[in-house]
Design a protein that fits this description.
Beta-Lactamase; alpha+beta; globular; binds methionine sulfoxide
Amino acid sequence: MIMPYDDILSELSGLFEGEHDAIANAANAAAVLWQHLPDINWAGFYFLKGGELVLGPFQGKPACIRIGLHQGVCGAAASRRESLVVADVHEFPGHIACDGASNAEIVVPLLRGDTLLGVLDIDSPRHGRFTEEDRAGCEAVARAYVASLA
Ligand code: SME
């Protein structure tokens, strides 16, 4: 499979250059992921606000707006502060089905040092869509995004 993260990171580096706005940079990151990654049906951000994850910029169908830190794949990745690659979301206890077409998911926490800012979430209709290379690529995207906010 084509692993387009070099292109994604290179494009984001240009888009983030000189821009620190959290919403603007998340919106462009979601758009770039959406354009480059095959077989996905949702890509976007949730931000930690008032102790829960609140929907941020995304591409795909409308999604659930608020997710508790112990709900779903997003809440699990956020509370554990670690990336989760889920081959079959229907096997994941508490998975939140925003789009019935989703079968696989990757969620990467956005961390500034020890501080959790939110998560990057990507869904796919294809079981087992996300690999360790996707984990490394999405973690690099998350790091680039957090670094852009400084
Ligand atoms: N499936 C996620 C909810 C967010 S949507 O996928 C956009 C979850 O279980 O946390």
